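**Fold tokens**
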Amino acid sequence: MPGFLELTLGGLLGSSLTAVAVGALFLRRNKRVESEIKAYFDERFKVFESTRSWKQQALFELLGPLHMQFDRTRRAMNRWRSKNLYLEANVVREGNRTCRDLLLSKGHLIPPHLMGDAGRLIEHYDAWLEAFEKHRGEAKGGDDVSFVFAGPDGFPFPSDAEEHFNAEFRKLQKELFGV
């Protein structure tokens, strides 16, 4: 018959082995949960970085330059008090061509909700540039040359599309830089 000491040591040893086994199971479970949590947040961080990178690229390469060209051509139109072939040929034409080329070459940076606006702007710029080349190509300047406008019979400038792009520019600028 076992003695008290043997029973106590046997019980302690059994309890200790059980505690070690349970502790090992909890440790393994905790490491698995920790690994799953880390993988989840790593994936979320990759998505965040990718999204932020796209937003920065859209802001720096498309929306910012468009914003400046819109402002430049609007200012030229506001200065257009009388016939000014320089403004038309060198500011408005250059601005229109730059905006059209930006929209065409940076289409991957256009937010999906602005694709319709982009199409209307491109359509206007194409029509305006075609009319400009037609009028200026034939007339080569002079006092009898009229200004080139691609509206109301053609494709009038979609000022709401310009405002939508400018609003997106301001939104991303504030979101990314708090400005």
